[in-house]
Amino acid sequence: MARGAIVVVGSCNMDMVIVSERLPSPGETVLGGEFQTSPGGKGANQAVAAARAGSAVDFVGCLGGDMFGNELIANLRKERVSVDFTTRERKMPTGVALIMVDGHGENMISVSPGANAALSSASIERARMRTRDADYCLIQMEIDPEAVFYAMNMAWRENTPVMLNAAPAPDQPLPEKLIRQVEVLVVNKMEAAALSGNGVEDEASAHEAARSLQQMGASNVVITMGAEGALVCGDECVLVPARQVEVVDAVGAGDAFCGALVTLLAEGESLVEAARFAAAGAALACTKIGAQASLPARTDIESLLRT
Predict the structure, then answer these.
(1) What is the DSSP letter of 105?
(2) I want to staple 30 with a disulfide (CB 3.0 to 4.6 A). Which of 24, 125, 154, 244 is the partner?
(3) Looking at domain 5-23+34-301, what is its CATH homologous superfamily?
(4) What is the Cα–Cα distance from 25 to 5, expressed in whole angstroms?
(5) Is 165 left (phi over 0), alpha (psi -120 to 50) or beta?
(6) Contact 221, 185 (CB under 8 A)
(7) What is the DSSP string of 153-208?
(8) Structure pTM?
C-alpha cells in the first residue's frame, strides 16, 4: 500500500547503454561490450524509485510521438506511476541518453532532451490540484529551467514541500528567491560546488558548501558523496555512511537515493532516517546494470538495512 503522495516533475528518456571494459578517450574507439536499451531520465527514474519504495506517484513530463514514447508510457503504467499529467508532443522525438559504463561502474552520459524540452507551464499547471494534495513535489534540472521554476513556485504556493535534485548542475546560479522555496536540496559533490562556489573534496568542505546553500535559502541540504556516504544538513550536519556493495553500474544510484528519500519524508520520517533508507536504496541500485532496471523495491531496501 502506498504510504505517501508524490508529484514528480521531470524528464523521461530512453537510455542506450554500452558496457565495456573501459571508457574511450576523446577520439578513441573501444570495441566490444554489451548493448541494451532501458527506460531512463531523471524524472521518470525518481518517479519509479519512489513508487517501488512505497509512494503513490504522479509523473508530470513530456514524451515524443515515437515508439520510444509509447514504450516509456507503458513502462510507467506498469510501475504503477500515474501518467494522467504526462503529455505527448507528436512531432517531436522522445528524449534519449547515450550511456557508456566501464568495468568499475564508472560512466559517461550524453543526453538529447527531445520532447523533454517542450514541457510547458500549461502542462505543469494541469497538475496543480494533485500537487496541492501531495505530500512532496520532487523536481530535477533535466527539463527547461523555466519549467523547473514554474513547478517549484506552484508547489510552494500550494504549501507542498519541494525537494529539488539540482542535477545536472545548471549553467547559471539558481535565483535565491527560488532556492528559498526548497525544503530539501539534493546535490552531489560537483553540483554542490557549482551552486555554492565552494570546492567539495571531503566532509569538511562539503559541510561548508551545505551551509552556504542553506544561507542562500534552502531549508535542508543533502550532499551525496558516493562511497563516503551522504552529508545531511538541517539544524545540524550528520554524515550518513554509504552501504558497502560490489558496484556493477552506478547509473541510477542518485535517482534511487532521491526516490527513496522523498518516500520516507512523505511518510513523516526525519531527514537523517530518510537519508539512511535512501543510502541503502542507492547502494542496491549500484549492484545491477541500467537505470530503472536497478531501482530496488522497498522490501529489498529494508532487508539491506537489517544486515
Answers:
(1) S
(2) 24
(3) Ribokinase (3.40.1190.20)
(4) 44
(5) beta
(6) yes
(7) HHHHHTT--EEEE--SPPSSPPPHHHHTT-SEEEEEHHHHHHHHS---SSHHHHHH
(8) 0.92
Alpha-carbon distance of 55 to 266, in angstroms, equals 8
**pLDDT tens, residue by residue, 75-109:** 999 999 999 999 999 999 999 989 888 887 788 88
**Distance separating alpha carbons of residues 253 and 243, to the nearest angstrom:** 12
Please state the separation of Cα 282 from the chain's center in Å. Answer: 11
Distance CA 277, CA 258 (A): 10
Q: How confident is the model at residue 2 (pLDDT cuts 50, 70, 90)?
A: very low
CA pair distance 8, 40, nearest whole angstrom:
14
Mean predicted confidence (pLDDT) in 55-80: 97
Distance, in Å, from the CA atom of 48 to the CA atom of 65, rounded to the nearest integer, reads 21
Cβ-proximal residues to 241 (8 Å cutoff; 6+ apart), any chain: 229, 279
User: Rg of the Cα trace of the chain?
Assistant: 18
Residue type for position 70: N
Active site positions, annotated: 255
Q: Mean pLDDT in the chain?
A: 93
Report domain extents, the chain: 5-23+34-301
Secondary structure (3-state) at 243? coil
Q: How far apart are CA 53 and CA 34, in angstroms?
A: 29
Distance from C-alpha of 69 to C-alpha of 39, rounded to nearest angstrom:
10
